[in-house]
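F.,

This is the one I mentioned.
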């Protein structure tokens, strides 16, 4: 591995064997990166497969030529890998999480809301139909009661009205109500579909923009680091490297490193400075805010499913409500009752007609003929994938410092002569500081 890295980091191969070794290494790296690039464009960014293949092949060929021919480009590309563990890599992973949540959870929420609306529509339709049928019961009761009144009037044979029946204006055709309810349901469904499509398109375009910007910034950040590394001796130069230790031992000044052990950091050590630790905590807090927003969406998915499932089960358990209409009517006649009452004389009333009947009807609120789609439960695999991605994100927060150290080590292995100059600059800086103290 050491020999392969030595060939890969050399500015110019020494012989034909190293040249073929470099070409094979660049080819292997290009194939792997090209496959990942195709999968990222097709699965995550949702481009068409032929466009993804064309972009992946073009990118792979361009990457192969660049890595094989341009030495600084190999260094920049090598530093991009650990840079994925920094803030820009977190942006890529976070955009992937957002895409997974929007594509998989948002349609599930909308589907469960549609189920709730279907239950409400079914209840409204059946209850309105049942209420309309109850008006027919009133019609029957009114005609029978009117017949009884007519018989009473005929038995008195004194005054006959034209008709003793009650007249009801009944809505015999309920198709108008059903049509209005159907149109309302279709409008709500179209509105939900439009919102779903709008959210998907917005997130898809936003995710592509964020992903493109993040990839561009990854290259820019690595290039910016290499540029500063090669032009500024003070840039990121506070590590106790092996070259610095060898230089101090050769000049018999090892005490300089012992006295500066608190200000210098070993690039391979696990120690974090106070500034690095505070930066990690701030990044972790920002990531926690994003996690809370994701959990709110996941909680909405579970809540929508719970409401939809309860609505479907309760609608199926709705009992039939019995309605009873009771009419009690009696007619009696007396001879000059007012005069007898005035004289305080006893009198008796003669019963002429009694009418007492009960009419029964049942109100229904649900029916087996209603088309209600079953509620869609949350997908546990989506929550698992999002949870794993956030575990990786939290890990990258604390690995960001070590990723920066690895970038410096990569730059030093590609430009060893410049690394010696940086070590000499740091040694002179420590010597001046020791003399001043």
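My design for it:
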């Amino acid at each position: 591995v050491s020999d392969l890295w030595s060939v890969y980091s050399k500015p110019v191969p020494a012989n034909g064997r190293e040249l073929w070794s470099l070409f094979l290494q660049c080819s292997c790296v290009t194939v792997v990166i090209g496959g990942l690039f195709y999968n990222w464009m097709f699965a995550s960014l949702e481009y068409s497969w032929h466009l993804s293949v064309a972009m992946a092949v073009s990118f792979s060929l361009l990457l192969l030529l660049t890595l094989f021919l341009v030495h600084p480009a190999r260094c920049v590309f090598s530093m991009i890998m650990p840079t994925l563990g920094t803030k820009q890599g977190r942006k890529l992973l976070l955009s992937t999480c957002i895409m997974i949540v929007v594509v998989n959870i948002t349609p599930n929420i909308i589907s469960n809301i549609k189920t709730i609306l279907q239950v409400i529509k079914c209840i409204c339709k059946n209850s309105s139909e049942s209420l309309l049928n109850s008006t027919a019961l009133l019609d029957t009761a009114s005609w029978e009661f009117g017949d009884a009144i007519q018989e009473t009037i005929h038995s008195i044979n004194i005054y006959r009205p034209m008709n003793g029946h009650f007249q009801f204006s009944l809505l015999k055709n309920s198709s108008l109500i059903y049509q209005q309810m159907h149109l309302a349901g279709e409008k709500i469904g179209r509105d939900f579909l439009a919102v779903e499509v709008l959210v998907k398109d917005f997130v898809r375009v936003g995710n592509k923009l964020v992903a493109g910007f993040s990839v561009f910034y990854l290259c820019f950040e690595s290039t910016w680091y290499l540029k500063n590394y090669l032009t500024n001796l003070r840039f990121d130069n506070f590590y106790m490297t092996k070259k610095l230790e060898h230089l101090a031992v050769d000049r018999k000044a090892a005490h300089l490193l012992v006295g500066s052990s608190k200000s210098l950091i070993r690039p391979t050590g696990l120690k974090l400075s106070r500034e690095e630790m505070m930066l990690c905590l701030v990044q972790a807090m920002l990531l926690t805010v994003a996690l809370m927003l994701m959990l709110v969406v996941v909680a909405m998915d579970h809540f929508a499913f719970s409401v939809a499932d309860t609505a479907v089960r309760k609608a199926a358990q709705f009992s039939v409500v019995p309605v009873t209409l009771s009419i009690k009517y009696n007619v009696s006649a007396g001879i000059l009752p007012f005069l007898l009452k005035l004289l305080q004389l006893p009198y008796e009333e003669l019963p002429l007609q009694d009418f007492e009947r009960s009419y029964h009807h049942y109100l229904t609120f649900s029916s087996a003929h209603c088309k209600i789609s079953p509620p869609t439960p949350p997908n546990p695999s989506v929550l698992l994938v999002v949870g794993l991605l956030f575990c990786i994100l939290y890990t990258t927060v604390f690995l960001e410092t070590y990723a920066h150290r690895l970038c410096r080590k990569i730059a030093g292995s590609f430009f060893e002569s410049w690394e010696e100059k940086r070590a000499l600059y740091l040694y002179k800086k420590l010597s001046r500081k020791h003399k001043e103290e």
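The first strand starts at residue 321 and ends at 333.

Talk soon.
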